[in-house]
Amino acid sequence: MRSPKDFFAPLALGAPAPVREIPVTPSRMIHFFDPGNEKMAAKVPDIAKKVDVLLGNLEDAVRADRKEAARAGLVAIAKANDFGKTQLWTRVNSLDSPWVLDDLITLVTEIGDKLDVIMVPKVEGAQDIHYVDRLLAQLEARAGLTKPLLVHAILETASGVANVEEIAGASPRMQGISLGPADLAASRRMKTTRVGGGHPGYLVRTDPVGDDLTEGRTTYQQDLWHYTVARMVDACAMHGILPYYGPFGDIRDVVACEDQFRNAFLLGCVGAWSLHPVQIDIAKKVFSPSPSDVAWARRVIAEMGDGTGAVMIDGKMQDDASVKQCRVVAELADALAADDPELAAAYDAATKEALG
Ligand SMILES: CC(C)(COP(=O)(O)OP(=O)(O)OC[C@H]1O[C@@H](n2cnc3c(N)ncnc32)[C@H](O)[C@@H]1OP(=O)(O)O)[C@@H](O)C(=O)NCCC(=O)NCCSC(=O)C[C@H](O)C(=O)O
Ligand SMILES: [Mg+2]
């Protein structure tokens, strides 16, 4: 174990000092694209204006014979564009693959100054983050980078879930964690073949009335991912990093996608992956608090004064704890509104109405 005194020391001579706080910038949707796919790559400059995070994906969903093309495509896109406030991330290949070493060497030395976060798939434990941490420091030093790259882990193995707290705290580079429901289902030998989302077979049923076991018994579908998302949120909150729901593979089912994203938002996630342009607006809507929730939060904060004691507002008790809940919503709204005049106007209009 590293001494706590050395935790914020650079891991290579000449590497930039690690950050002390993870920057909290909007990341409601991490938009995946294949940089080696010409049709998708051509859409990137326009998509960049609509998303918080653009992610050039090099791992799964990129064919083995297109790995080099994807890597080269990402280098070319990053060099040719300035995406302004939109963050540029990449997902490199898994640490046991034949591609990851070249992914990291090429990306850090060629476009390390353009990249914000490196997403690492199939993380099993802190040892995987430690390996990436040291290698990144060496490459940052070689490239002469002045800003450290951050690392995002995907929670998609049973070991990863068992070790999620140590993963979240493994390095000052740790920016966040995403749920990877497809690989996680396979790793756990779950019997769902869907990429995220629920399953009609995972349900609870009301008790029978009398002797009839079949009629009149309502069933309720349950969320297969509740336990893992909640555990990931706690691990991230404990270490001051950000939790995300991952992919929702049924692109056509925009309704269930919105539900899955909202469950994650309510549990504490800050964003989700968009795999197709149609999922961008869903994530933007879900991961921005609603104007009515923002108005309520601002009203509670205003009426609670110094934030202590207890008051009744519209028949509901508010106290020191509920004002903290309201601050979470209000602070997120302020951060999002700072870059989005339309959202700012919607929040202000709803607040004006609520405060009278
Ligand atoms: C899912 C897709 C394969 C669907 O693509 P396609 O069949 O081309 O869809 P459309 O015809 O509806 O597309 C319309 C146009 O939009 C472009 N397009 C599609 N997706 C994107 C995108 N993500 N970014 C930019 N542009 C996009 C198409 O090229 C069409 O263009 P045009 O013909 O000119 O009109 C495809 O969406 C896709 O590949 N998406 C990304 C998939 C991906 O990244 N998967 C990996 C992440 S999920 C994962 O890895 C699992 C996870 O790790 C886990 O374990 O859980
Ligand atoms: Mg995966």
UniProtKB/TrEMBL annotation:
Biological processes per GO annotation: oxaloacetate metabolic process
Keywords from the UniProt entry: Lyase, Magnesium, Metal-binding
Residues that bind Mg(2+): E156, D183
Record-listed substrate binding positions: R91, E156
Pfam families: HpcH_HpaI
Cofactor(s) it depends on: Mg(2+)
Domain HpcH/HpaI aldolase/citrate lyase per the UniProt entry, residue ranges: 32-194
InterPro entries in the cross-refs: Aldolase/citrate-lyase_domain, Citrate_lyase_beta/mcl1/mcl2, Pyrv/PenolPyrv_kinase-like_dom, Pyrv_kinase-like_dom_sf
GO molecular function: lyase activity; magnesium ion binding
This protein's record includes keyword Nucleotide-binding: no
UniProt-recorded name of the protein: CoA ester lyase
Organism per entry: Amycolatopsis vastitatis
